[in-house]
Amino acid sequence: MKSSLFKKVLLVSLSCIMAVMLASCGKSGSKDEYVAVTEPTYPPFESTNDDGKLVGFDIDLINAIAKDQGFKVKMKTMSFDSLVPAVEAGNADLIVAGMNKTPSRAKHVNFSDPYYNAGQFYMVMNNSAINSEADMNSNTKVAVQIGTTTEEYLKKLQKEGKIGQVVSLNEYSTCVLQLENGDVDAVAGDMPVLDEYMNKKPGTYKTAGAISTANADDSMLAIAVSKKNDELLKKVNKGLEDVMKDGTYDKLCKKWGVTGLDHK
């Protein structure tokens, strides 16, 4: 009787142990999926199509890297100035948002190798008298996306009295809308993004030169990764290297009409 009872207890115990082991296996498998955050109003890098689906060069690139390295990516959207805090707090693993590496950001997140060089320029309405920064003055209003390095460049110019007001907005599309409505005189940002808007509405806008305070090194875009996950950073860098070698990167550049880095 005691022997039979002992066997039953042993079987139950073994069953519990197996259940725990299986559950643990399931949890370890979940580490193959990472949460990437972005701000979806920055075409051609990231935006939403008519069906509300996230699309863009950055989206395709991170998916190609993930496929190469054998992990999955779950995309989430939020305001640009919330991206770094989200990763630092552990609410996300990656930032894929046309973000450039700066000393201040590097204190909070790690950055991958660069994947794009985006110059910083102005865009104005086609009938504007502004053709370069030299045509701006203390009355000029310039719209920019909040939390970007472009915003920092403009604030330097504002302090120098070369422009009047820096209008910082959450979404880049709102910056362009304010330009169209005449609420601001210019919009500032990455050249590929300005090109995207100009190509959508030919003859509506024009470029107005480069931002003089922009640092050329700050124009290099990279993928941000949590400082707590060196393994993921290695995967991202290896995946980026692989997709550049196998031709995937060049295909994505052609698809989205951008000029990629020279990686030959």
Model description:
- It holds the Pfam family SBP_bac_3.
- InterPro entries: Solute-binding_3/MltF_N.
- Residues 1-23 form the signal peptide.
- This is Basic amino acid ABC transporter substrate-binding protein.
- Keywords: Signal.
- The protein contains eight helices and 15 strands.
- It has helices spanning 2-29, 57-69, 83-88, 149-159, 172-181, 191-200, 230-245, 248-256; strands at residues 33-38, 41-42, 46-48, 54-55, 72-77, 94-95, 109-111, 116-117, 120-125, 141-145, 165-169, 186-190, 205-210, 220-221, 224-226.
- It is globular.
- With 264 residues, it is an alpha/beta fold.
- The strands form four sheets. It has a five-stranded mixed beta sheet with strand order 5-1-6-15-7. A five-stranded mixed beta sheet has the order 11-10-12-9-13, sandwiched between helices.
- Helix 4 links the parallel strand 10 and strand 11.
- It folds into two domains: 33-117 and 217-256, Periplasmic binding protein-like II (D-Maltodextrin-Binding Protein, domain 2, 3-Layer(aba) Sandwich), CATH 3.40.190; 120-210, Periplasmic binding protein-like II (D-Maltodextrin-Binding Protein, domain 2).
- Helix 2 (57-69) packs across helix 7 (230-245) and helix 2 (57-69) runs antiparallel to helix 8.
